């Protein structure tokens, strides 16, 4: 992203920013995170799976986003069965050391399973499970949520390998400095595996929707789908792709080596987020 982009800030966030500046506090260190845009073909092109975070959530309540969350220490387990590009190749794509890059990819797989019930794994490097909507897999998902099990353990017990080739990086965004909870988030895209279907199982959302990217942007502009700049920008970029093939192809050319961190600008029209 080289052009300057600017988005009006909600009044509540502008007040939070002013309070942060007045306090003189140091910014919180961002936690590394991963989020996944699940894509599927549709009559009009393709759709993306989005969820609205419950208003009670500590971070970004009421905002539309994608399944995701922080990287867990267990995501760095090198013993997990792995298929697709090796960690060293992901290191180059994500501009991270290989162990950290592997942890981010594993976190993406774990989070989309925990929050949407979609598992990007298979019994061989070129197959993927067709159905994980079963009592056994639900128990495994609950174990992951409770941190009673690890992704390595879940996949090993089932004789599966993580399919890192089913993910492609799209962007990397860092939460602005005034937020008390900050994230350094890697955005990935993934095609919904045939036979699997997302389910509203996270407990963190009060609405989920499959929607075409351009329709989501239009609904945001009408005030119907509140979202923060990373979500809106990603959907705007995806809306430029005419179909699923084009979106997947575009994801293979994305450069995520430079994180995007919005700054706050004050002007005659109020406060706004800006990136360059």
What is the rounded distance between the termini? 7 Å
Number of domains: 1
Strand content: 25-35%
Topology pattern, helix = H, strand = E? EHEEEEEHHEHHEEEEHHHEE
CATH architecture field:
Alpha-Beta Complex
Any idea what the CATH superfamily is called?
Nucleoside Triphosphate Pyrophosphohydrolase
**Considering DSSP H and I runs of 4 or more, what fraction of the residues is helical?**
25-40%
Walkthrough of the structure:
- With 276 residues, the protein is α+β, with helices and mostly antiparallel strands.
- The chain has one domain (5-275): Nucleoside Triphosphate Pyrophosphohydrolase.
- It has eight helices and 13 strands.
- It has helices at 11-23, 87-94, 98-116, 135-145, 151-158, 213-221, 229-239, 244-251, and strands spanning 5-8, 31-42, 45-53, 64-65, 68-70, 82-83, 121-122, 161-163, 168-174, 183-191, 205-211, 263-267, 270-275.
- Strands 2, 3, 4, 5, 9, 10 and 11 form a seven-stranded mixed sheet that branches. It has a three-stranded antiparallel sheet with strand order 1-13-12, covered by helices on one side. The chain has a three-stranded mixed sheet with strand order 6-8-7, with no helix packed on it.
- Helix 2 packs across helix 3 (98-116).
- The N and C termini lie close together (7 Å).
- This is Nudix hydrolase domain-containing protein.
- Its cofactor is Mg(2+); Mn(2+).
- Residues 29-233 form the Nudix hydrolase domain.
